[in-house]
């Protein structure tokens, strides 16, 4: 996601060094990878034909971590964080957000394939990836000088994604046609 690419822009104005920002970004990236790898097993084992509910819960959990991170830092609405912040607290919030965003990526792809069947899987994957990349490009184009808005924008984007998933009717067209359980 584009958010982890601007962690240093978010952290430097509140006194964190480039090294600190690097570790925050590193933890987010590793958590994203681990989340993406683990969710496949969990989804296949426990949530066959229930990707939507799993995706909603994953997005709610990512929202909690994004909100935690956002209210820990200054914004256009408050000068200091609403809750106290320190390096460990921010690291946990960033890592948790990264983990659950990592979990959501393969679920979005899999659910898109189900919803758009009989389109080829590659077409569905390209559409999801295109939307993700356009969103990241827009986010990365926010000038660092308005860093008080970046976290709020990311949090609102995550909340919007949750409601968008809730609004989409649950269908498993590919699984129904092929008689599979995934």
Give keywords.
single chain, 182 residues, mainly alpha
Describe this entry's structure for a reader.
With 182 residues, this protein is mostly helical. It contains seven helices and no strands. The chain has helices spanning 7-11, 18-46, 51-72, 87-116, 121-140, 147-167, 173-178. The radius of gyration is 17 Å and the shape is elongated.
Could you provide a short overview of the structure?
With 182 residues, this protein is mainly α. The protein has helices at residues 7-11, 18-46, 51-72, 87-116, 121-140, 147-167, 173-178.
The pLDDT mean sits at 85
Radius of gyration: 17 Å
Beta-strand residue percentage: under 5%
Number of strands: 0
Secondary structural class:
mainly alpha
Largest sheet geometry = none
> What coarse outline follows from CA principal-axis ratios?
elongated
User: Which stretches of 5+ consecutive residues score pLDDT under 50?
Assistant: none
* H and E order: HHHHHHH
Q: Kindly, what is the distance between the CA atoms of the first and last residues, rounded to a whole number of angstroms?
A: 26 Å
Fraction of helical residues: over 70%
Number of helices: 7
């Amino acid at each position: 996601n584009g958010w982890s690419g601007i962690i240093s822009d978010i952290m430097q104005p509140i006194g964190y060094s480039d090294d600190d920002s690097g570790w925050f970004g590193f933890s987010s990236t590793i958590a994203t990878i681990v989340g993406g790898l683990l969710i496949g097993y969990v989804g296949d084992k426990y949530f066959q034909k229930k990707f939507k509910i799993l995706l909603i819960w994953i997005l709610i959990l990512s929202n909690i971590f994004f909100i935690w991170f956002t209210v820990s830092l200054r914004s256009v609405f408050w000068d200091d964080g609403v809750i106290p912040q320190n390096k460990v607290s921010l690291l946990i919030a960033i890592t948790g957000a990264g983990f659950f965003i990592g979990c959501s990526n393969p679920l979005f792809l899999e659910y898109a394939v189900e919803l758009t069947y009989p389109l080829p899987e590659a077409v569905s994957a390209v559409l999801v990836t295109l939307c993700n990349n356009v969103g990241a490009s827009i986010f990365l184009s926010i000038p660092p000088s308005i860093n008080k808005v970046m976290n709020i924008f990311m949090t609102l984007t995550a909340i919007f994604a949750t409601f968008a998933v809730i609004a989409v009717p649950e269908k498993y067209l590919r699984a129904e046609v092929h008689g599979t359980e995934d």
